[in-house]
Amino acid sequence: MILGLLTFLFASLSTTEAGTIIASHGSGEACEHTDQSVDIDCGPYTISITEAVYGVHSNHNQCGLEYRYSGVCRSSISLPVMRERCDGKTSCSTPANNEIFGDPCYGIHKYLYVTWDCIGKHLITY
Predict the structure, then answer these.
(1) How many other β-carbons are positioned within 10 Å of the β-carbon of residue 6?
(2) Distances (CA, A) of 58 to 28, 63, 68, 112
(3) Would the CA dihedral through 23, 91, 95, 48 be positive or negative?
(4) Cα–Cα distance for residue pair 36/90, rounded to 1 Å
């Protein structure tokens, strides 16, 4: 029984650099002008932000808006801001707003799209 559980756990975890495991991956969106936030909870693991875009990433979003904006609408500080707010913590919550990320395209409803890994140290030694 225990051997089967350990096999399942090892199959669920990806190993990155020496001694570090990726316990899970996640993604989330939050729409501007709402009370939504991107809420990340990695439980006992720590957050590692892999991608963050505030602006208009694509027409496939949870905000229900189809964008006809032809220019680039992405805050250049999205990734560093999210990494500063969340990396190394076990949880964090970030709303989609211009006060945090700046306004990459005035007058356009924007959203925050984030992907992350929940990482931890490999506890088994040989």
Answers:
(1) 11
(2) 14, 11, 10, 11
(3) negative
(4) 20
Side chain identity, residue 107: G
Per DSSP, helices labelled H in the chain are 2-12, 78-86, 98-101
Q: Could you read off the pLDDT tens digit of each residue along the chain, which spans 126 residues?
A: 333 323 233 334 444 555 678 888 999 999 999 999 999 999 999 999 999 999 987 666 667 666 666 667 899 999 999 999 999 999 999 999 999 999 998 888 889 999 999 998 755 544
- CB–CB of 123/63 below 8 Å? no
**Which one-letter amino acid corresponds to residue 61?**
N
pTM for this predicted structure = 0.77
Distances, alpha carbon 50 to alpha carbons 12, 57, 116, in Å: 19, 15, 5
Q: How far apart are CA 119 and CA 42, in angstroms?
A: 8
